[in-house]
Amino acid sequence: MNIAFSQVTFAYDVDPIIKNFSLKVTKGDVIGIRGASGSGKTTLFRLLLGFEVPDSGTITFDGERLTPQKLKAFRKNTTWLPQDLNLGDGKVKEVFQYPFTFQANKSQKPDEKKILATFDALGLKKNIWDIDFSNLSTGQRQRVGIALCYLLNKSILILDEPTSALDENSKHQVENLLFDPQRIILSTSHDPWWIDRCTQIVDLNST
Ligand SMILES: Nc1ncnc2c1ncn2[C@@H]1O[C@H](COP(=O)(O)OP(=O)(O)OP(=O)(O)O)[C@@H](O)[C@H]1O
What we know:
The chain is an alpha/beta fold.
C-alpha cells in the first residue's frame, strides 16, 4: 500500500497554497505534517480525499491516479479524524454507532462491551455513554474520535492534531491503539511528543 504526491500545486484563488509538493508514503509510515496556521495542512488532506483537485501534479494510491473510481476505494479504506470532531446531536451511545451503519463499516460494528473496553483504555469513564456528545469536553471528544478510528479499523488514518487535548497517559494509549505496521497514518501536529513518534516529518513552512 502506498500514497504518492508528485509535484502537486494547488490554489483556491490565484496564489498557490500548495507548491510543487511531493511526498511518498508506504505501509507502516506515520507522517507528521507541521506548519503555521494557513500553511495548507488541511488543504493537503482535502486534495488527498478528492474534495479539491490539483492544478498540476499527481496524487496516486497504489500507483494509480485518484480517479473517481479509485477515490471510492481509497475512501473506503480511510478514516479522517478532524480536530474538532462533531458526531451530531444525541447521546454518545447513539452517535457512536452511526458510522457503523454505513455499508463500508457494517462488518466492523462492535458490541457495547468492546466499545466500553476501548473507552476504558483511553481513560473514558462508562458514564459518558449517556451524555450528549456535544456536552463532552474537547479532550473527551478527541478520545471518543480516537476510539472510533480504532474500531473502524481502516488501513489509512488521517488525523488532525490527534493529541492536542490529551494528557501523556492518553497519548500513550493512542499510540498503542492506532500505530500498526500494516497501516498508513497521515497526521498534522504541533505536539513534540507526537512528532517524535512520526517516521517522516513534513514541514510546510519550508516548502
Ligand atoms: N475553501 C477555501 N477557499 C478559499 N481559500 C481557502 C479555502 N480553504 C482554505 N483556504 C485558505 O487556504 C489557506 C490554507 O488553509 P488550510 O486550512 O489548508 O491551512 P492549515 O495549515 O490547515 O491551517 P490551520 O492550522 O489554521 O488549520 C488559508 O489561507 C485559508 O484561508
